[in-house]
Fold this sequence. Notes:
- By secondary structure, the chain is α+β, with helices and mostly antiparallel strands.
- The protein has helices at residues 174-177, 180-188, 221-228, 243-247, 266-283, 304-319, 329-333, 356-370; strands spanning 7-14, 18-19, 27-28, 31-38, 43-52, 59-61, 63-66, 69-70, 79-81, 85-88, 92-96, 101-108, 112-113, 116-119, 127-131, 145-148, 150-152, 154-162, 166-172, 193-199, 234-240, 287-291, 325-327.
- The strands form six sheets. The chain has a six-stranded antiparallel beta sheet with strand order 8-7-12-4-15-16, with no helix packed on it. Strands 1, 5, 10, 11 and 18 form a five-stranded antiparallel beta sheet that branches. It has a five-stranded parallel beta sheet with strand order 20-19-21-22-23, sandwiched between helices.
- α6 (304-319) links the parallel β22 (287-291) and β23.
- The radius of gyration is 21 Å and the shape is globular.
- The two termini are 21 Å apart.
Amino acid sequence: xxxxxxxxxxxxxxxxxxxxxxxxxxxxxxxxxxxxxxxxxxxxxxxxxxxxxxxxxxxxxxxxxxxxxxxxxxxxxxxxxxxxxxxxxxxxxxxxxxxxxxxxxxxxxxxxxxxxxxxxxxxxxxxxxxxxxxxxxxxxxxxxxxxxxxxxxxxxxxxxxxxxxxxxxxxxxxxxxxxxxxxxxxxxxxxxxxxxxxxxxxxxxxxxxxxxxxxxxxxxxxxxxxxxxxxxxxxxxxxxxxxxxxxxxxxxxxxxxxxxxxxxxxxxxxxxxxxxxxxxxxxxxxxxxxxxxxxxxxxxxxxxxxxxxxxxxxxxxxxxxxxxxxxxxxxxxxxxxxxxxxxxxxxxxxxxxxxxxxxxxxxxxxxxxxxxxxxxxxxxxxx
Length: 383
């Protein structure tokens, strides 16, 4: 790897932190969480960010490990995060090679408010939880362990790696919290780019919910973006956000939490994008790529007004000189004969979220735009 002067810190994995779905049980005790992460770069040191951003009580991680190596915080083997805060671990010496899978495990000994986490799906995204203290165990006990798609507290992993490596951020809502960033990460494997997901289902540019029914639909853009863009080594951000601003409002006679006053104009959405996302990102030296909004024909709140808003916003995303380029996800997944709808085989069935085939196509579209900026590294094992 050479000396540290030729290396830098780059995020190699990341998710957002939001408010978890408020179900009957919101506390855990005597629980181990384990998250496997495939390394996209080789490196000599690791550091980890944990988040209690949306918690309302302190959260204590009693033991934290990567493999058999303790992760420490100010030299201590445990850490307590105050509500609304994030914490970064010490940098630890831990050599990794491209293609390695590391396992980050932590133990929650005492009653812990599980209010800071994000639901993520995709072929590279699956965690585990076990009842008991197994943070140091080689294997989790089969009879006490289940899979989870919720990523609690673990927010970002950075690696000290070659100086030409960099990170691309995928920012969005449930469509980005689902599979296309994972497929993009697979396609980018073997290049000098990491794909970092910052996505929360249900989020909007301009609004957020403060009721427990919809709190898991996340923080509004003004709150999210400055926090989620803390990404070491980031050079680009892909913005695929805004469909929930269009489809959520239905009027308080239908849903008391979704008034028509929440429905923005297209101009308000454009201004929000520019002020909350594009200008701050460019102020940090990032290239900004717009991602068009996907078809919604057949979705339960679909109407012609919402479709017109989507089309107008997409046209702005395609043509505005604010962006360094546009990834036309809409064109990638829409039907040729009915452009308002998904192409055959590209609809998950709810007429809002794509199928797995469509997510792969979206990843191809994103790679196609960025691949020239990601020279492929020869002689590396791809999977």
